[in-house]
Design goal:
Elements lengths: L2 H5 L8 E3 L5 E4 H18 L4 H13 L5
Antiparallel strand pairs: 1-2
């Protein structure tokens, strides 16, 4: 399944996350956005072109046999 197909399913994406004590701490889409923000920050500090890195990694993954 391609990631674009995965993103279209709204089943848990916007649901609030709840801690063991019952406190609402946000939603999955907010957490994914936080991860992306941190990833971009790391890439900027290390002078990594994320678009180029993604294209190279996708090309490599297409040559692999996944079990």
């Amino acid at each position: 399944m391609r990631s674009s197909e995965n993103c279209s399913r709204p089943s848990v994406r916007n649901q609030n996350l709840v801690t063991a004590t019952g406190a609402i701490i946000g939603s999955v889409d907010e957490e994914v956005a936080d991860v992306l923000i941190h990833l971009c920050s790391i890439a900027n500090r290390l002078d990594i072109d994320l678009a180029d890195a993604l294209r190279r990694k996708e090309a490599l993954n297409e040559t692999r046999a996944w079990s």
